[in-house]
Design a protein that fits this description.
The complex is a heterodimer of chains A (213) and B (204). Helix content of chain A is 52%, strand content 11%. With 213 residues, chain A is mainly alpha-helical. Chain A has two domains: 6-135, Methane Monooxygenase Hydroxylase, Chain G, domain 1 (Up-down Bundle); 156-208, Ribosomal Protein L9, domain 1. The longest helix of chain A has 39 residues, at 67-105. Chain A starts with 5 loop residues before the first helix and ends in a 12-residue tail after the last strand. Mean pLDDT of chain A is 82; it is low at 209-213. Chain B folds into two domains: 1-65, 3-Layer(aba) Sandwich (Ribosomal Protein L9, domain 1); 67-169, Methane Monooxygenase Hydroxylase, Chain G, domain 1. A three-stranded antiparallel β-sheet of chain B has the order 2-1-3, with helices on one face. Classes of the chains: A mainly alpha (213), B mainly alpha (204). Chain A binds chain B through residues 1-5, 9, 12-13, 15-16, 44, 48, 66-72, 74-75, 78-79, 82, 85-86, 88-89, 92-93, 150, 194-195, 197, 200-201, 203, 205, 209-211, 213, and chain B through 4-7, 10-11, 14, 21-28, 30-32, 40, 43, 49-50, 52-53, 56-57, 60, 62-63, 170-172, 174-175, 177-181, 184. Chain B: It holds the Pfam family PSF3_N. Chain B: This is DNA replication complex GINS protein PSF3 N-terminal domain-containing protein. Chain B: It comes from Edaphochlamys debaryana.
């Protein structure tokens, strides 16, 4: 018999050592070993039960289960339950992180994708499709909900160019972004430009000590 | 069970506690007592087992367990003398969780008083040192001492301080990369200087 749920514990520790917005590589080896540990506990419990059945069939008095056997069975049972719980936590935590990635980064980064197992990638694709359908114009609300966690106060934002990006195509036409130029563009189109460092958001005072943003 | 899905709660229960078997168990000695030559655990044997197993077996009246060493008299005296100096992260990363969980079974009133007193002392230190701006080195030293529960409080505190600062400057918390009004602060400083100069001139 292997140590008390130690492998499942190592799984969780491994996942915890990664920061909460990255995944640890899916440790198939340890998950498989945890399953075999559960099987082992199950086999030992069954061995105890069949031993008792055999004695009963041999015509012995149907005896009370003695305390030592009961303790052993409970021990196996608790180990199975513990392993199950740790595995569930492992899967749930990874699922949660995948979901967060869809909301904050919009796509699954290649480095993280390499760490997923097949069914996790499947889950991510399904989740992504459901969310896109909900946000689409045809079937859902027709807004990109992942852009802002709080409702924006204005449709347009003022941004300042940080490097010469040249001409960019925006929904209302073309705009030239050069270092230092300040333009007003729709908030949802500004977001990707801010993220890749082409422009910065200009926080300007509206005269009441608060930024308009 | 409310914390079934919590990773920290699950890991806290991995702490080993000294447990005494009432009746013994068959065929598990090699796991519970590494290095044991026998196959079975005897009645009355003392072994170290994780808290999750100890609580479940004790609930059924099959074992009894006592407190881990960190809650013993020797450490209690140390912690009472100077709670803020003890490094909990190395010795007992889940100091409060484990203590409370043990207390559900042991019902030791002195333990709960001891836990809350320790937390009160350490909390004062955490707030006074950690939330004011201190050097990175002092901060690291403080962080390396905190237990994981305290670390969560500490990080929440720092987060709220930075949010309050941002609010007082009148900005909405956006993505961190977006927020860098360095130029504005410089110009604000210049304005202040100009005002001071103007005031001095009028005083003359």
């Amino acid at each position: 018999m292997s140590a008390l749920a130690a492998r499942a514990r190592d799984l969780l520790k491994e996942l915890k050592s990664y920061s909460s917005d990255t995944l640890s590589p899916y440790n198939e080896e340890l998950v498989r070993l945890t399953f075999s540990e559960i099987d082992e506990h199950n086999a030992q419990t069954e061995a105890i039960v069949s031993e008792m059945r055999r004695r009963q069939q041999e015509g012995e008095e149907p005896q009370q289960v003695d305390e030592v056997t009961a303790t052993t069975m409970c021990l196996h049972y608790e180990c199975i339950k513990r392993n199950k719980r740790l595995l569930l936590i492992y899967m749930n935590e990874r699922m949660q992180r995948l979901r967060d990635m869809r909301w904050t980064q919009r796509a699954l980064p290649e480095t993280q994708k390499a760490r997923c197992c097949q069914s996790e990638i499947q889950f991510y694709n399904d989740y992504s499709r459901v969310l896109s359908t909900y946000m689409s114009r045809a079937e859902g609300v027709g807004m990109d909900l992942t852009l802002d966690t709080k409702p924006p106060k204005d449709m347009a934002v003022t941004v300042r160019g940080l490097k010469d990006a040249g001409e960019v195509v925006l929904s209302y036409g073309r705009a030239t972004i050069l270092t230092g130029t300040t333009i007003s563009i729709p908030a949802e189109e500004a977001e990707p430009l801010i993220r890749d460092g082409t422009v910065e958001l200009v926080e300007w005072d509206d005269g009441y000590g608060r930024n308009k943003q | 069970m409310t914390d079934y899905w919590s990773m920290d709660a699950a890991l806290a229960e991995e702490t080993l506690v000294p447990t005494k078997f009432k009746y013994g168990a068959l065929g598990v000695a090699s796991v519970l007592e590494p290095g044991s030559v026998r196959n079975d655990v005897e009645a009355g044997a003392k072994v170290e087992m994780p808290l999750w197993l100890a609580t479940q077996l004790t609930r059924r009246g099959m074992t009894t367990f006592s407190l881990p060493e960190i809650y013993h008299e020797r450490y209690r005296r140390k912690l009472n003398a100077g709670a803020e100096c003890i490094n909990l992260k190395g010795r007992a990363p889940y100091f409060y969780d484990v203590g409370n969980k043990c207390n559900e079974f042991l019902q030791d009133l002195t333990l709960s008083a001891f836990l809350s007193r320790t937390y009160a002392t350490r909390y004062r230190e955490l707030v006074s040192k950690g939330l004011s701006t201190v050097s990175g080195e002092a901060m690291l030293e403080l962080q390396s001492k905190l237990s994981l529960e305290e670390l969560a409080v500490f990080e929440a505190g720092r987060d709220s301080v930075s949010r309050a600062e941002m609010w007082s400057r009148g900005a909405r918390p956006r993505r961190a990369a977006v927020y860098l009004p360095i130029r504005k602060r410089a110009s604000a400083g210049r304005e202040e200087e100009q005002q001071r100069e103007a005031r001095q001139r009028t005083n003359k």
